[in-house]
Write a structure and sequence with these properties.
Blueprint lengths: L5 H16 L23 H22 L12 H11 L13 H19 L6 H22 L12 H32 L16 H4 L6 H6 L5 H9 L3 H35 L3 H10 L3 H13 L14 H17 L3
Helix pairs in contact: 1-3, 1-5, 2-3, 2-4, 4-5, 5-6, 6-9, 6-10, 6-12
């Protein structure tokens, strides 16, 4: 609600809804209104990917071919696709073209979709760089598309506006790493307090059922750096109280937090560059508004650092009312002062 324009608010809620929905493992089971779900293997990554791609294509074809009069396309079968149709068909008062009508923005939307679906099946990032690349496609793509809704198109030729999209690349990494660690906390803290439910009767070290226990997705190169077992075995080690494993896990998490903070700083530098190049204060303000949610990520990283990077700390699973208030006040202060 801190976004200044109607296009930006519509874009954020639509694209954020798409980002969330495409990351739900069993989301379609709760939406019986989907008329065509039997035509897709929605419990598989390929089936979900096909549904969303076909759905988005039906939005584009409906608007381009029929002028918005098609009322029986696949886009009608899911509320998020209907929102996307509204966004796609709404003329932008901030730019020369409608939102999402360039090939670059469509490619970004497809990359975001692929990244979100692939994350559902992922068990291991081979390197930290591969995690960063995935963040670029997913979280950074989301920010770039919302920027387009504010009148800063992804393929902008305006030199003064390009730093905003470079900032989105960096802020997206901070957002993505924070999300990965936040989800890992739920798994790791549960494993430690209920180890009996995830180990075999024989007490085997490597027989965790990862489908029921969840995942801790860590880059393999960082695990190798600290001689940490593969993440599939980390859960078993934590379950039996392996303190050496816990210590090494903290070191991996510390490195990931450090990278997230570095990317945050690089994003701020790009916003400073935009501030110096752009004479349009409205554009600068709109761009900064898009990045306000990244403050929530840094608040989480602060809490994780205060807990000594311990993913098994159950206190990190939920933010207290005081912590939520602090985060909200920080965002409001940044919005008023327009500094990220």
């Amino acid at each position: 609600m801190l976004l200044s324009t109607a296009e930006a608010r519509l874009g954020y809620f639509t694209l954020r809804a798409l980002w969330v929905e495409t990351g739900l493992r069993f989301g379609f089971n709760t939406l019986p209104e989907i008329k065509s779900k039997d035509e897709y293997e929605i419990l598989t990554a390929d089936g979900r990917l096909k549904f969303w791609r076909d759905g988005m294509e039906s939005v584009f074809q409906m608007a381009d071919d029929s002028g918005g009069r098609d009322t029986d396309g696949l886009w009608t079968s899911h509320p998020t696709l209907r929102l996307l149709k509204i966004l796609y068909c709404t003329p932008s008062s901030l730019g020369e073209k409608n939102i999402l009508h360039t090939q670059k923005s469509r490619d970004t939307l497809q990359s975001l979709l692929s990244a979100r679906i692939q994350d559902l099946e992922l068990r291991q990032y081979p390197t930290m760089q591969s995690l960063i690349d995935r963040c670029h496609d997913s979280c950074s793509g989301l920010s770039s598309l919302v920027l387009e809704c504010t009148g800063l198109p992804i393929n902008t030729t305006n030199y003064a506006h390009q730093p905003a999209h470079r900032a989105a690349l960096h802020f997206g990494v901070t957002h993505g790493i924070a999300n990965a660690l936040r989800m890992a906390i739920v798994t790791a803290s549960t494993i430690v307090t209920s180890n009996a439910s995830i180990t075999s009767a024989a007490g085997s070290y490597n027989t965790v059922n990862t489908n029921s226990a969840g995942r801790i997705v860590l880059p393999q190169d960082l695990c190798d750096k600290y001689s940490l077992s593969r993440p599939r075995y980390v859960l078993s080690a934590l379950a039996i109280g392996d303190e050496d494993c816990k210590r090494k896990l903290k070191l991996v998490v510390k490195d990931m937090v450090g990278i997230a903070r570095k990317e945050m700083a690089l994003g701020k530098q790009q916003m400073d560059v935009m501030g110096k190049l752009s004479a349009n204060d409205d554009k600068k303000r709109l761009a900064k508004e898009v990045f306000l949610p990244v403050i929530a990520s840094t608040t989480f990283l602060d809490r994780l650092e205060q807990s000594d990077y311990d993913l098994t700390d159950r206190g990190l699973r939920n933010a207290s009312p005081v912590e939520r208030l602090v985060c909200s006040l920080t965002m409001m202060r940044a919005w008023v002062g327009m500094s990220i």
